[in-house]
Each structure stands twice: as C-alpha cells, then as structure tokens.
Amino acid sequence: MQVVGINSSPRKKSNTDLLLSSVLKGASAGGCEIVHIDLYSYEIEYCKACENCYKTGSCVLMDEFPDVYDLILESDGIVLGSPNYINNVTARMKTFLDRMADTVHCQRLLGKYSAAVSTAGGSGAVEVADYLNHSLFIMGASVVGSVGVNLSDGEEMFQKGVDQSYQLGVMLADAILTKTKYPDQQEEHAAMLERVKNLVLLRKEEWPYEYEYFVRKKWL
Ligand SMILES: Cc1cc2nc3c(=O)[nH]c(=O)nc-3n(C[C@H](O)[C@H](O)[C@H](O)COP(=O)(O)O)c2cc1C
Question: What one-character DSSP code corresponds to residue 87?
C-alpha cells in the first residue's frame, strides 16, 4: 500500500503542507508507505495540446513530469494539496493536471483512492480541495474525502483541520486496505468510461494509441 502526497505551494513554511503532512501521517499509521512530493521542486512545462499522448502514449516534452506521474501510477492512494490562488489551485498544480489529459481518456486511476487538502487566507479552501479531488475522480480515482481550512477562521480551526487531515489519512489507508466501494461514485465512473469509450471510438484513426489501449483493456 503506497500513498503519494503532492503539495503545490511554493512557500517553505506552507500551511497547506501542514495539512498534507497530517494526512500522510494518518495514512502511515494506517499501514501505508508514504511518498511526500514538493511539486515546485520539479520542472514541469505547459501542455502544448499536440495530442501526441493520445496518438502514441508518450509526451513530446522533455521535463520532470514523468518523475511525479510515475509515482502516481505506482501508488494506491493520491493526496493533492494546493493553497487557494484566486479561487483556484496554484498555476503549478494546474500545469501538472493539464499534463494528465490522456489519464482522463484512459481512466488510468481506476481502482486508486484520492484525498485533497487546501488552505485559503479568507475563503474558498473547501472548493479548491473539492476541485482537486474532482480532477482525480474524472481520471478514475475514488474520492475518500477532503479538508479545506480558511485561515480567517482562526488558529483553533486550523488545528482542527490538522486533526481532520490525520483522520482523512487513516480513512484513506482503510479504503485502500479494504478496497472500499462507493456505489454512487462507481455509477459515475461507469458513465465516464462509456463517454470516453465513445470518444476514443470516434477518434480511432487520429488516436491509435488510445484505441489500442482500450482494446487491450477489453473495453472495446
Ligand atoms: C497569488 C496568491 C493568490 C491568493 N488568492 C487567494 C484567494 O483568492 N482567496 C483567499 O482566500 N486567499 C488567497 N491567497 C492566500 C492563500 O491561499 C493562503 O495564504 C494560503 O494559506 C497559503 O497556503 P500555503 O502556506 O500553503 O502557501 C492567495 C495567496 C497568493 C500568494
């Protein structure tokens, strides 16, 4: 059981990373191996929308994206963390997520579990954490939960968020261990698979890699 935690704050003493670390501690107490990543220490370029990943399964950009992406693929649980930057994730996190468009088509995160954390100065932390989870959800992951803390709510609430994050980590480890099923999410995953199946079939000539991937998976 491995869980990778990815923080996308550029700050050294990141509030978001305090929550993320707490999730990872909970997951570790639940029996998971932990990998803790600082996204700002990796060089990650913008997606060029060349569709090469759809066509061939590989990216034309030569940077450090695969170092982080491979950790996601080999993990059972993924925890994303981002501060609220203008009511959204940080640019680095968005850049990272954009590089995973092929992961959406190929539903590569099916069978994995996700959690997310966010902090905000005034408001919006819950929404940002939910966006992070939703991004992994559309790639196939099952969402265990999220924690968002607005610093404006005070130190006591932040401490509460740290404690909730620990519990979230314990729940994540348990979901991985027991292969928890969430019927509502499974239904949406099935509908998503149907949508991408139709898309891949429609674009069969342009995206041969994805078509063959679906055939290998016996989805087509
Ligand atoms: C560029 C930038 C944009 C921000 N935008 C928002 C915002 O829209 N709403 C908000 O409540 N806080 C905003 N903040 C505050 C951060 O979300 C807050 O300080 C957060 O806890 C920082 O997390 P970190 O310590 O993990 O970097 C912004 C901060 C920066 C630097």
Answer: S
